[in-house]
Design a protein that fits this description.
This protein has about 260 residues and is of the alpha/beta class. The protein has a single domain (about 10-250), classed as Metal-dependent hydrolases (TIM Barrel), CATH 3.20.20.140. About 40% of the residues lie in helices and about 15% in strands. The protein is built from eleven helices and eight strands. The chain is globular, with a radius of gyration of 17 Å.
Length: about 260
Amino acid sequence: MNSDAWGGIEVTDAHAHANRALLPRLLTTMAETGISAAYLVAGGVVPPEELSRTIVTEGPGRDVDADNADLLDAVRDEDSLAVFYFANPHRAADESDLELIRECAGIKFAPGVHGVGHLDPRVQSYVDLARSESLPVYSHCIGNGALSVEQYARLARRNPEVNFLLGHAGRGNFDLLAAQEIRDAENVVFETSGGFDHVIKEAVAVLGPERVVFGSEFPIQHPRVELTKLALAVAEPELPLVLGENMRRLMRGARQ
């Protein structure tokens, strides 16, 4: 019998990173920690030190593309894995993006990589594709300006037909404002990776357990760390919702 607090719960990871080389390690880690499915974003787009600097300084970011096609090809025979298209909003979406997006489970923005604000028309061009293809959108928000949670919530309110995921517990670690900032944008769910357990408790209290989803941020964070945090932060009857049911329900509303 699994002695983990989440043993017996069908766990779905809403947010992990991978590339072809990392897949064996990811699959082993999922098996060891009891994760049955994961949604992936192409990793290794910029060096970790550069990403950290951009997040801390709120920009400027740079024009760089992820290898979405290679990750899609790498997971093609893995039924437990699906890919979010890593958009580069330094250019508006075009037919080449759409061709790959139609193979994906969602669309992901990373202002910390690209430095393009959530209300930029080029970002909206990808959201328009998300709407037309019935896909959710994910973003990692930073700071208090164009890349912020507040601006992301505005984007969500402008596009009520699209489901949005707020990544990394807002701005990460001790962001108690993020749940309040998305509270009235009911098409936004709160993804927990990187947030303190106190922040997760607050998000559940403010948004309700139905709007909170588990993400690991593998490989930067080990899934067991995030799962243990949630087992401490979320009441036992609500754990199945946060650890998997909410994400699976959100994705059932999307084309997979």
